[in-house]
Every structure is written in structure tokens, then in C-alpha cells.
Amino acid sequence: MFYYFTDDKDIYQLDISRDLIQFKPVNQVSISKEYAILTDASFASVGFKEKIGPGISSIMVPISKENVLYQPKTKTYDLLK
Description:
Layout: E1 2-6, E2 11-15, E3 21-24, E4 30-37, E5 51-62, E6 76-78
Parallel strand pairs: 2-6, 3-5
Antiparallel strand pairs: 1-2, 4-5
């Protein structure tokens, strides 16, 4: 099973077993993203990038959307690939 999200352009799926989803008393979906920043420049010489990401750290969804069912009829994309 999957959760589905849209960015008004594409539809993304996220495996329901991921623990990134939180159902909260909010009005809209909110996705928290984080970047990794290189703090020791000496690692850049061996190929480390100065900044990578974003990685998704959490997704807050309105409680009212917790039991909404959706059967996609269009192509979906994995949210975390």
C-alpha cells in the first residue's frame, strides 16, 4: 500500500510502511526537507560534495485525510528515489 502526494504537476507514492508520515491537526500537507552540509573542507578533496539533498525528514498530513482512498489512473513516481 502507498500514500500519494502531488506537487500539482506529478503524483508521488510513498510506501505506507515508511515512518515519515505524521497525521496532525493541520490544514494542508507539509513536507520537511533537510540538507547535509560538509563541515570539514578536507573531505572535498576525496570527492565529498559540499551540500547534498534535500532529504525528506517528515511529512505532516491533515488528520482529515488519513482514511482517504485513492486509486491512481495516471503514472506515479516514488517520492524517495
